Amino acid sequence: MPVSPVLLALLAAISLSACVVYPAHGPYVAGVVTVAPPPPQVEVVGVPPTPGYVWIGGYWNWAGGRHVWVNGYWAAPRPGFYWVPNAWVHVRGGWRMRAGHWARR
Q1: How many Å apart are CA 56 and CA 68, to the nearest integer?
Q2: Cα separation of 65 and 43, whole Å?
Q3: Which end of the chain has fewer CB atoms at under 10 Å, N or C?
Q4: pTM (2 d.p.)
Q5: pLDDT computed for residue 2 by the predictor
Q6: Residue 4 has what pLDDT?
Q7: Does 64 fall in a domain?
Q8: In the chain, how many domains are there?
Q9: Residue 4 in domain
Q10: Percent helix / strand / coil, the chain, rounded to 5
Q11: Considering the domain boundaries, does residue 22 fall inside one?
Q12: Residue 44: its pLDDT value, please?
């Protein structure tokens, strides 16, 4: 005896109504990392490739569910600006990355 398409749809709806989806509570919740960043790594800065270049220091980024070190690099200066480094800011519930940027003097 064949089953009607309406009955199949009704059975599917009933079985799916019991599914509950919970938000993932791991080390990253709503833009906040709940794991403190490690201390900064020591970097060998060396000599700039061109006089006047600015060192952009390395920092811990959050990628793939963990902190990952991003190496520093030399950058051409921007007249009238200075570099504000990347920084982790402690906020309620964890840590949030404040991205590095050029700021006007």
Answers
A1: 17
A2: 24
A3: N
A4: 0.70
A5: 66
A6: 66
A7: yes
A8: 1
A9: no
A10: 10, 35, 50
A11: no
A12: 93
Centre a 10 Å sphere on the Cβ of residue 26 and count the other Cβ atoms it contains: 10
| pLDDT at residue 66 in the model | 95
Q: Is residue 15 part of a domain?
A: no
Single-letter amino acid code for the residue at 7: L
Phi, psi dihedral angles at 63 (to 5 degrees)? -150, 135
CB 70 within 8 A of CB 58: yes
Region of residue 57 (phi > 0: left; psi between -120 and 50: alpha; otherwise: beta): beta
Average pLDDT for runs of 10 along the chain of length 105: 57 46 57 93 95 97 95 97 96 95 97
Residue 73 tokens, joined: 């690099």
Question: Minimal CA–CA distance to 62: which of 26, 105, 10, 12?
Answer: 26
* Structure token pair of residue 37: 């960043």
- 13 phi/psi in degrees, rounded to 5: -65, -40
Residue 93 DSSP symbol: T
Range of the domain at 71: 27-104
